[in-house]
Amino acid sequence: MRLYVIRRIILIIPLIWGVVTSVFLVIHLLPGDPAAVLLGPFATSDREVALRHMWGLDQPLVVQYLHYLGNVAAGNFGTSFLTGQSAAYQIVTSLPYTVILGLSALAIAVGVGIPLGVTAAVRNETVADRLSLFLSLLLISAPNFLVGIVLLIVFAGRLGWVPSIGAGTLAQPASIVPHTILPAVALSAGLLAYLTRITRTTLLSVLRDDYIRTARAKGLAGASVVFRHALRNAMLPVLSILGLAVGEVVGGTAVIETVFARPGIGSLLVNSVTGRDYVQVQACVIILAVSLVVMNLVTDLCYAAVDPRIQYQ
Amino acid sequence: MVQALPSVALAPAAPATRSRWRAFGKNLQRNVPALLSLGFIVLLVITAVFAPLLAPYSPSLVSPAASFQPPTWQHPFGTDLFGRDILSRVIYGTRLSLLVGVLAVAIGAAGGTLLGMMAGISARRAEQAIMRCIDVALAFPFILLAILILAFFGSGVQNVMLAVGIAYVPRFARITHACTLSLREMEFVSAARASGAGLGRVMLRHILPNLFQVLTVYGTFSIPIAILIEAGLDYLGLGVLPPTPTWGAIINEGRQSLMIAPWESVLPGVVIMLAVLAFNLFGEAVASFLDPKANIGLQR
Prior knowledge:
The structure holds two protein chains of two kinds.
Chain A: H1 2-28, H2 34-39, H3 45-55, H4 61-73, H5 87-122, H6 127-141, H7 144-158, H8 173-207, H9 210-217, H10 222-259, H11 265-274, H12 278-306
Helix pairs in contact in A: 1-4, 1-12, 5-6, 5-8, 5-10, 5-12, 6-8, 7-8, 7-10, 8-10, 9-10, 10-11, 10-12, 11-12
Chain B: H1 18-29, H2 32-49, H3 51-54, H4 86-121, H5 124-138, H6 142-153, H7 157-184, H8 187-194, H9 199-235, H10 247-253, H11 263-290
Helix pairs in contact in B: 2-4, 2-11, 4-5, 4-7, 4-9, 5-7, 6-7, 7-9, 8-9, 9-10, 9-11, 10-11
């Protein structure tokens, strides 16, 4: 097992290198000239030249690339065109809010979606089952920003239970919770619905297996059969879907953070794209993609740890 | 939004004959939700085609006196800050939102199929090179890849379409690659090679027709996701430029007035939801007809 873990960790290094390189290529093959964009149409050409020199844009692409690789490896993403602060600093200050949002959303999706799916499967063909199928279908089809907007109008606007925008401050942990509830629910909605459906489907098919009949035949209580025998096997496909879904949560932060005007990597990315701040765009995309790669690795390792059939070699 | 890659079940493709269409129609008659969904999709297409005839007002008709009117019979979806009729904007928005969704998937399917087939049929080293690039592209969350490409191209309708399409290329490539790998071991491919067919001919005449089924299923499920991603990009203000109406762009315009004019954001959002729902349900009917054992889609 340890060898397998080490091998998997080594395998993501070329993947991360590929991510970093492709982001560089996309940004540097851009048709626009960042210096011209930043200085506007009335800039003198020698100021442009000076700025291009300052950013190293006048050097050959290969030299720029090697510089960039070295810098990224050292955690230096350059200076934001818009704010003049280091891009890494912006990332570090926004990251906690995105992590809080993402983890809360995952926790809600798993904590509500899987029990709902189990309930639907156990009460197969009842009104509750039908209702959960219908509602989850609606949620899967709803854009996540619509869910966010409706929550915002109802709970922050009409009822005034929670603040509508912002994320609280880390200095006051108590302010984090009310600010995080709505965005976390909005971000989790689609995944929650999908997990409900998958859990229901896989559990239903497992419940038809012979060993379940055996367990029931030997007189085990219904709950024990469902939770100790069936659910364990039904969780494997759910876990693999969760691996895929983490990407949607990571990508969804861009939308949800914008809906709720929260600080975070996602809203930082959107603002940087709008402001043509390529240095910051580059840093945000790299951080989000690399964190997805790492989280996928974690789910794969969990999968291997849970499923005894996986060969480690 | 989560889209699992379908398990690959390859049967020799039956040609899409008239009897096959009829069988699909019969299947559909027993599936009321799918039938309703097809009806709604047809309605959307009609709305898109005949938008100028159906819209009660011009989508850009500004009337300051009618600013922020709640839904009434005169303006069923209400009006926005400039007094523009939201329903008319949604009707015109249907054109672009549907077109972008469908064409983006077409771009992704065309590019991805070509790449996947080439990887599947070429020498090991070329295959490895292509597939490692695909792996890197798949390491990005879907909407992030689209945002990155959009940052590269800049805003605009065509660019949104291209961005979503390109973001779909690696996904289609991975599926067609897997299918091509199993197809190339089949006897009819060896026979074609032995009788002197070149790689291009084998790809187009022998592999491609057999990918039809998988592509139809995955493509049908991709359209609603492409619509969602496009709406998300427009909502973020990264997609089409104002005053062009698309479903997502209308909701983006409503952001500033969310609390005083919630209809401007919510009603177009509900239209998106219904459209995506219809494509999902219809897609599932297509999938279960073409491949009853395939375990993809909505998990019912």
